[in-house]
Design goal:
The chain has 270 residues and is α/β, with parallel strands linked by helices. The chain has helices at 2-30, 35-44, 46-50, 53-69, 82-93, 151-156, 167-178, 192-214, 229-242, 244-250, 252-262, and strands spanning 71-74, 109-113, 117-124, 130-137, 139-142, 146-150. It holds the Pfam family Peptidase_M90.
C-alpha cells in the first residue's frame, strides 16, 4: 500500500509540475492589457497604430506572453522599466502575428545594455593562426536562450519604421532561424517543397546582394545581409517589415516568400 501511495503522489506531483506553469501563463494572458503599455506601443512602434484591430489584439496577447515568460536583465547599470520591456517585446512579437507558433520557446533572457557593447571575438585564420579582437555591437542573438540589445539602438528606431534597420527585428529573426538548429537562413517551414522554394529564392537573392555589395550597387537591403545566409535572412526580415514597398517592387520573389512565412503584408501599415 505505501508503494501505491508513493506512486500516486509522484503522478500528482508530475501533473502539478506541468499544470501550474500553463495555469500561470493562461492567467497572465487573460489579464487586461495595461493602458500605459498601449501608450508605449503607440509611441515607440509607429506601425502599431496603423494595424487592423485584430492584429493589434494579437500583438497585445503575444506581448503579455513574452513578458510573462522572458526575463529582462539590465547590464552596465542600465535600468529595466516598462518602456524597455514593452518596446522590445512589441517589436519582437511582430514577427509572430498570424502564425500558430510559440513565443520564441528557446529564449529565456533578454539582456539590455544602455548603448553599443563590446563582445570578444576569436578567429581562426590561414595557417591556423588564432587572433583575438573586440567587436562593438548593437545586438546579438545566442542559441543558448539569450538575446542582447543596446537600448540606444532600439530607441533611435522607435519613430523611424521605414529605414530598413531594426535591431530587434534582426536579432529575433535569428531566434526564429535558430529554432531548427544552428542559424543558416532557413527557419522552420514545415514541408520539403517549401524548403526547396525558399532555398532557391534565398540563394538567388543572396547572390544578388553579394554582387551589389561588391560593386557598390544600389540596393533596398543593407549590404550586411551579404555576410552569410543567416545574416541575409535577418536583414531581409528588417527590410520586409520596414521597407516593404521597396522590397515588393525590386525583390518580388523574396517579398512573396517572406509574406508567406510571416503571414502579414506590412505594406498595409505604411
Amino acid at each position: 500500500m505505501p508503494l501505491l501511495y508513493l506512486l500516486l503522489f509522484s503522478l500528482l506531483t508530475m501533473g502539478l509540475v506541468f499544470w501550474i506553469p500553463k495555469y500561470r501563463l493562461r492567467r497572465a494572458v487573460r489579464q487586461p492589457f495595461p493602458g500605459n503599455y498601449s501608450r508605449i506601443l503607440r509611441r515607440n512602434i509607429p506601425a502599431y497604430a496603423r494595424m487592423p484591430t485584430h492584429l493589434q489584439l494579437q500583438l497585445k496577447r503575444l506581448i503579455k506572453q513574452f513578458l510573462h515568460e522572458k526575463k529582462f536583465i539590465g547590464c552596465d547599470g542600465f535600468r529595466i522599466n516598462d518602456e524597455v520591456r514593452v518596446t522590445i517585446a512589441g517589436k519582437a512579437c511582430m514577427l509572430l502575428l498570424n502564425r500558430p507558433a510559440s513565443v520564441f520557446p528557446d529564449l529565456k533572457l533578454v539582456l539590455v545594455y544602455p548603448s553599443a557593447f563590446i563582445a570578444p571575438r576569436t578567429e581562426l585564420g590561414a595557417g591556423g593562426i588564432v587572433t583575438h579582437a573586440n567587436q562593438t555591437l548593437s545586438g546579438e542573438s545566442w542559441s543558448d536562450g539569450r538575446v542582447i540589445l543596446a537600448w540606444d539602438h532600439v530607441q533611435q528606431r522607435n519613430t523611424d519604421f521605414i529605414d530598413g534597420h531594426n535591431v530587434v527585428l534582426h536579432e529575433f529573426a535569428h531566434q526564429l532561424d535558430s529554432e531548427t538548429g544552428a542559424p543558416n537562413g532557413a527557419p522552420q517551414l514545415m514541408s520539403k517543397e517549401k524548403y526547396q522554394r525558399w532555398s532557391a529564392v534565398m540563394m538567388h537573392e543572396f547572390r544578388k546582394l553579394q554582387e551589389a555589395a561588391a560593386y557598390h550597387m544600389e540596393s533596398a537591403m543593407d549590404y550586411y545581409g551579404a555576410t552569410n545566409p543567416a545574416e541575409f535572412f535577418a536583414v531581409a526580415t528588417e527590410t520586409f517589415f520596414e521597407k516593404s514597398w521597396q522590397m515588393a517592387e525590386f525583390h518580388p520573389a523574396l517579398f512573396a516568400e517572406l509574406r508567406e512565412y510571416y503571414r502579414v503584408d506590412p505594406r498595409e501599415w505604411h
